[in-house]
Amino acid sequence: MSSKIGLKHIHAIAPYVGGRPISEVAREYGLDESKIVKLASNENPLGMPKSAREAMLKAASDLGRYPDSNGFELKKVLSERLGVPADWITLGNGSNDILELSARAVAQTGDDIIFSRHAFAVYPLASQAVGARAIEVEPTDSYGHDLSAMLSAVKASGDKAKLVFVANPNNPTGSYLKSQEIEDFLIAVPPHVVVVLDEAYNEYLTPEQRYDAIAWVKRFPNMILSRSFSKAYGLAGLRIGYGVAQPALTDLLNRIRQPFNVNSLAQAAAIAAFQDLEFLQQGYDLNRAGFKQLTAAFDELGLTYLPSAGNFVLVKVGDDDDSGAQMNLSLLKRGIIVRPVGNYGLPQWLRISIGLPEENAAFINALREILTTK
Ligand SMILES: *Cc1c(COP(=O)(O)O)cnc(C)c1O
Fold it and tell me: Total domain count for the chain?
């Protein structure tokens, strides 16, 4: 390609690498698709809730029309439950959309965007796409966010600092920040810097871990809370998420979003899923049990893992810089898809999404087999 075409900062972007699709792995390794277990993208192992599927199919009869650009019905249910007016809510084509809109609304070439090392892969992508400098802050003593180091980075970057991404829980490490730490951070961050609190896994927090992020949105005009329907609500394929922020900031996001960024099927399914508290509870319970199942096996096999607050576990599968890649390959050959995290600076680890009991068991069996026949 001609080196003259395309912006320099766009050429510098390393494209996102997702979990391998089942059909692709089946083709490559000559496996039966139906026997493949995918624990690679933190999807809900229960799939889409039945309630959402029905609502979606009903909405399908009207697909000749454009979606509701303002998502009136969905914002109404969100607004009632969250306790904020509808004009504090931005719907996104996945919460990924909210992350990108946030970057586009407040940062450009010459600005700085700050986030933690080993944080979600979309943060560097969203930062680089707007030409901003992505500052990755190394956590000092753990795999979680070091908010005091991040605050120092924000202050060091001065007027150039425009945006901070904080994920709680974080993906891929599963680390969790206590509410007091986040609140202290929000108080200390200069008011010209927007803080995106990414809560894609919020619904998996235990009752003791929960906190009131909406109260912070009401208190801090520079905060955007980001939530997803892809994980606990089981709607990853439909692409829908939302942001909550005060009206001034919401108005900025609204100006730059695509007019029809969230399709009608997604809106209808999200309304149903959001109200399906039984489904949410079922997924939560399944996740707790799956975490125990996986980590009991890791303990037995002598593998180190991180205490995850999400629906996945990060496990260390060796001490070499290709340990994760090697183990990933061995698992793929046995029809198990997990996520190597070398691109997150964690080449000795694998991220395992928590699946159904039988999926977890299939993964554990393959892992044990690989480790004992080495
Ligand atoms: C999965 C994930 C998201 C976004 O998912 P969407 O499908 O775009 O809603 C956002 N943040 C983190 C940390 C995630 O892991």
Answer: 2
